[in-house]
Amino acid sequence: MLFLGLAIFYKYQDKPLKSLPIYGQKDFNGTDTVFHTIKPFTFINQNGDTISEKTFEGSIYVTDYFFTTCQSICPIMSTQMELVAKEFSNNKNVKFLSHTVNPENDSINVLNDYAKAHHANSDQWHFVTGDKKQLYDMARESYLLNAEVGDGGPNDFIHTQNFALIDTKKNIRGFYDGTDKKDVQRLIKDIKTLLKE
């Protein structure tokens, strides 16, 4: 019995004790369950480089929405994201993707200054701009970060404090309040769980 117990212990000691849920609508294709996945995208980051879903292939990543002139929740969120990025600074399999909700004002240079202010490693943490409609569609339809209906037009505006955790298969594995320190600690813990899957 002792040997059996030790064998089971060693077999499972590096496996996560829990599995994170997969969020979004599920479909059945006749043979298997098909989970909601993040759709393809193309944006420009703080260095002027083109960023797409391929940039994140094989990586876990955390995503959020912000704007550089925000004086309410965004500075708190960016500071919390900076702490998470620092926690995983030596892990190339963990990345971060922050989308501006104000592409008219958040130019590449503005995003670059903002990234530097948050000590972002541009190989790991991308601050992106692009077409407003695409940015907003991604928030609503891919990341499920905003439930409000909008058209991405001049009067449309998204302002959410939520982070989404995306796995290597482009599935959403968690939502977190980026202004809540305890929830951000939960995010760190969940990233470590995903890394063991």
Question: What is this structure, in a nutshell?
Answer:
The chain has helices at 2-12, 73-87, 108-117, 132-142, 181-195; strands at residues 27-28, 33-34, 42-45, 50-52, 60-66, 94-100, 125-129, 162-166, 172-177. With 197 residues, the protein is of the alpha+beta class. The chain has one domain: Glutaredoxin.
Domain count: 1
The quaternary organization reads as single chain
Report low-confidence residues grouped into runs of 5 or more: none
Based on secondary structure, the structural category is: alpha+beta
Strand content: 15-25%
Helix content: 25-40%
What this model shows, in words?
The protein has 197 residues and is of the alpha+beta class. The protein has one domain (21-195): Glutaredoxin, CATH 3.40.30.10. It has helices at residues 2-12, 73-87, 108-117, 132-142, 181-195; strands spanning 27-28, 33-34, 42-45, 50-52, 60-66, 94-100, 125-129, 162-166, 172-177. The strands form two sheets. A seven-stranded mixed beta sheet has the order 4-3-7-6-5-8-9, sandwiched between helices.
